Amino acid sequence: PFHLPPDLLTVAVWTGESASTPELVGMVNRFRDEESGKYGKMMNNMTELSRTGIEAIRNSDTSLFLNVVSKYY
Asked: Does this model's pTM top 0.90?
């Protein structure tokens, strides 16, 4: 378990539309199959950003965490 830094505020948002997990997984799988190079690069990038974000939270480094969030898409 970990705790969020006290200066990191979180907000839950409901867009009014639910998402379909099977549909999203299907889209990701199609992208992986059709664009394997791009898919691999994106997954590697998101993995590294995730690791950095986790370390930022563990170290209560809100600035670094928000920087990582801005790059994660």
From this structure: no
Q: How many CB atoms lie within 10 A of CB 6?
A: 8
Summary mean pLDDT of the chain? 95
The terminus-to-terminus CA distance of the chain in angstroms comes to: 25
pLDDT in tens, 50-63: 999 999 999 999 99
Answer whether 57's CB lies under 8 Å from 38's CB.
Answer: no
Q: Give me the DSSP letters along 13-64.
A: ---S----HHHHHHHHHHHHHH-HHHHHHHHHHHHHHHHHHHHHHHTT-HHH
Burial of 62 (C-beta count, 10 Å sphere; 0-12/13-18/19+): middle
Both structure tokens of 51: 């690791």
What span, in angstroms and rounded, lies between the C-alpha atoms of 42 and 29?
A: 13
